[in-house]
């Protein structure tokens, strides 16, 4: 079975309507935004501030630029072929069947691990009100509720995620407005002055030197994990040709404003070296300002933010397993939908693996967050890299007349493609420099080796190998 035939079969299955196209424009817009605004901003930024001070803004800006090009590449591919589980489809069509198999399973793994991070964050946030409750208890309760929501119907998921995301967006906007108002008046805690000068008045803008960028680049990348979620929702969008370019264009600018703008305000309200690395800076800053009621509200919001991102993770992993199973790259049971057109088996399997995050919170609560975010970053780097490389190969196919061009295009290609790939390589190097994040580099080779074995033994039957080799030669 050739790559093009395999991909056409996968696309045809999506067009049969087995997955309900129940996500509207407003759902897609907020899901794309909400999936990327979660624990990376509300908790991960605290650790980044502690490691680099105000210089972390450079890390977020560099990562944001790379994300912009990644999203434009993905947008072009989505307009060309809007199918659920799109990353695997593009990798399979324009790179190789192995790449499609690995990408599908790696993206599933990335969101499972990201879900673990969000559940870990919920346990940490709950300590603000109930410090004696074990971290794993709220994590388990949240997972159970979100599993139930995702098993009902895609419209229910879409509505819940819409309101989750809206709460996050409104909160960040309110924080920006209130923060700027406080900075303008110069009011601050305990006689201190809230001012933009706090960005460079406490050890300079780069208090630990440029090495701060190295130590925070991984956190910045993890923070942006989820922007590619529109590639999973594509198969359930009502008007993908209209909705997807709009979502792709708007999400990048919104995230840059929300991330960089919010962090500038936070570090201007309270000096960066007075913020705790173990507490959401959004909560801590209002505590420091002597507004405990606002701090409590923000803490509730960051819990909903983590739940929102975990909700997106359960949604996307179920759809990815559905796509893999439809293409005979996962057990057939995972490719079935229930009476509500929901891939229930895939959702339950993903949630079951997320339970490992609950176990991790029980065994090593202090280290759980940094471990899972580092591993998730590896998965994100692979996914983003394969999107950009698939786009390179797609453009090559267009030049050769093997694929149709679209009006919505990635700017600066192929130079911007190579810029992104080089950036992702630097992120991997940065992961190797910190002992706490290096564990991800130990796990990654084992994961890819396991997938390669699975591909040879399960996804590619002996009688298919010769046909696949012939197809690869013809496409070369």
Can you walk through the features of this model?
This protein has 19 helices and no strands. This is Permease. It is a multi-pass membrane protein. It holds the Pfam family AA_permease. It is found in: Cell membrane.
Q: Domains counted in the coordinates: how many?
A: 1
Mean pLDDT: 81
SS elements, strand count: 0
According to CATH, the homologous superfamily is Amino acid/polyamine transporter I
Q: What is the CATH class? A: Mainly Alpha
SSE topology:
Elements: H1 3-15, H2 25-34, H3 39-42, H4 44-52, H5 56-80, H6 86-94, H7 97-126, H8 136-150, H9 154-185, H10 211-224, H11 230-233, H12 240-269, H13 281-288, H14 292-326, H15 344-363, H16 368-399, H17 415-432, H18 435-459, H19 462-475
Membrane topology: Multi-pass membrane protein
Keywords: Amino-acid transport, Cell membrane, Membrane, Transmembrane, Transmembrane helix, Transport
Domain Amino acid permease/ SLC12A: 27-459
Q: Top keywords for this entry?
A:
single chain; 476 residues; Amino acid/polyamine transporter I; amino-acid transport; AA-permease/SLC12A_dom
Summary?
The chain has 476 residues and is mainly alpha-helical. The chain has helices at residues 3-15, 25-34, 39-42, 44-52, 56-80, 86-94, 97-126, 136-150, 154-185, 211-224, 230-233, 240-269, 281-288, 292-326, 344-363, 368-399, 415-432, 435-459, 462-475.
